Amino acid sequence: MNEAATAAVGDARAGNALTLWATVLGSSVAMIDMTVINVALPAIAKGLGADAAGVQWTVNAFMLPLSALVLIGGALADAAGRKRIFIIGLALFTLSSVACAVSPTLGWLIAARVGQGIGASLLSPASLAILGADFDGEARAKAIGTWAAASAVAVAAGPIAGGWLVDAFGWRWVFALIVPPAVVASVLAGIGIKGGRDPDAPTPDWAGGALAIIGLGLLVWGLTQATSGGEHGSAYIMGGLVAAAIFLWWERRLGDRAMVPLALFGTARFSALTLLTFLLYAALTGVLLLLPYLLISSGWLATAAGMALLPLPVIMAAGSRLAGGLSERVGAHRMLAAGPAIAGAGFALMWTIPDQRIYFVTHVLPAMTLVGIGMTMAVAPLTTAVMAAVDHHHAGAASGFNSATARIGGMVAVSLLGLVLTGGGHGVSIAAFHAAALMAGGVSVVAGVAGWFSAPRAAV
After folding, report:
1. Is residue 435 assigned to a domain?
2. What predicted TM-score, i.e. pTM, was given to this entire model?
3. Which of 31, 172, 239, 246 has a Cα-to-Cα distance from 327 of 20 to 30 A?
4. pLDDT, tens only, 253-268
């Protein structure tokens, strides 16, 4: 190989390394933001005088645009340029994080959280699209593996780092934490990512995205009002259902050009998997928000409350590969039935957590271990089952929709937290927490039943 060719190979490898680290850092900051908020909510509620509805919207203001627009973000990356959309999304996310850190009022914070959600809906799908376009063969598999591993580390480290920052410096630093790695990711992206777009990519379904935001927004607003003592909750819920009906009509009209092609639901398997995803992640999100709230209200430091969640990502990181292989041997539907049921047992076990003198080893660790084992058994087979439930033309849409469904389930769960929060959103009723834990356990068991029916039909 001559010197010019050797230099070209070296430049390509350096460019690929910069691309990988740009996408890893960019997507990781979004993952961190989704987890650190769990331990910062009590301090935010106290610092900004938030009531129960304000607490709920601090979370859902981020989740709403992310859930509704993530599919448009992927289509826009293909149509307008993956590098461009990634950098725009990262810039919006970073500026919104700064706005969160300096928020003088709750309304300011909620508006900035909306900006974070929109930014995340652009940068998250664009980061995977970049890895798929800029890497080939084995290098692509390794890059995506590194991206997934970094996401797992971000999920594990987020609550601990966030809790320490809350204890040491205050809740505003939870958002400031995100800014330095986001700036580094922007610089690396500008230097290393090749860019590129798909000239045959369809036009993003803007009308579908707008209808999704309106429908989900009204539904979440109505549920939040209804559970936190507000007015006109039922009217907002009805408006959300009307918008959802219009959304379905529009998506059916667009056919395969839709943001959510309704052909996905042509099989009972995909519908069962969608129900499983919605219920399981609703249960998980609700409990993972309430548990740190309860622990901090009982006198735990935010750092310790964040560490109490650590068994979940550790078990999932250690066992996901094994769960994927086991799923191939025993059948994904068996794993998707057993996993949610075991996670449900973990949720229900939280009923034993006392009102005072809560100990990690005796009261929290057993329940979190069961939840971790159950989620590990479910998550890896779920991804495989979703892809197998549809034809290859809809594989990308199915994967994206399943991811959005998980977030929507979590968002609906958060909108119901007004039933559990007390003291104007500053605490958690132990009796209501126990009821929520038992309900999460029951919901997870129903998710497991749906998982059993996700098996392919036997040939006749």
Report:
1. yes
2. 0.86
3. 31
4. 988 788 888 888 878 8
